[in-house]
Amino acid sequence: MLFSGRAHPTLAEEVANLLEVEIVPTTAYDFANGEIYIRFDESVRGCDAFVIQSHNEPINDAIMEQLIMIDALKRASAKRITVILPFYGYARQDKKHLGREPISARLMADLFLTAGADRLMTVDLHTAQIQGFFDGPVDHLLAMPILTRHVKKKYGKRDLTVVSPDAGRIKVAESWANSLANAPLAFIHKTRDPRKPNESKANRVVGEVEGRTCILVDDLIDTGGTIVQAAEALMADGAEDVVIVATHAVFSGPAIDRLKNSTACEVIVTNTLPIGDEKRFDKLTVLSIAPLLAQATAAVFEDGSVTSLFKN
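Predicted structure:
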């Protein structure tokens, strides 16, 4: 049985259509003081439950709604509860940069476990080790096959260089390079003040980018400052074109204006988060993550292999 919160119903409907199932009818509303009420309109006793909810703005409401749904399923005697998180909220807070800071990504995992989740399924975590925060199976799905398919089709005949926006994403960029016929690698050396969120400074480009089409890859775009600075640095170093690719389109604050006016020729993202008409612009390409979520859900339900989805 597939259940959806109110954060991203369009994606849930896409997944349901691909699985040829109906989303379980749910009564959900907010009380006057902001508290959330959830009740499922049919029996869930003994079912294999999949609860899909993206953690988009307002992020804390989306998380709390999903936790309440899990609790309702546990108390209604669901046999197994798999939580589908296309975007895992608080994933960037995965370690302490300064003293007296929380590790909120671990807290999130603890909350889902306490609520009654048996398994987590998520897409492109900010850092892969977050899988170890949850005391149970975690299916870490990769959007890279969907994104690389589009890049190969559109830019495959050009001289490509895969670029990481910082040294920390080099492993991901290496995987991209391997999938793009062993394209050369480059990265942006940048500095960031841990006391100033969403701010960084691109210092210099490390690698050969002159006369090449640069595929600038990251897991998410929030305010767009880091990725746009990186694109400008690449063009200043003689790149022919820059294509920005990210899985999660958070698009906070000035992100749309920055991306729209950036030197990049295309911005490619997936629909792990809802992207309204007000957040769309000419350079933007949105690819659907629903087929990946549907295949993984079917594999988990049938006790099949999720890893085999990424063999090729």
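Summary: The longest helix spans residues 59-75.
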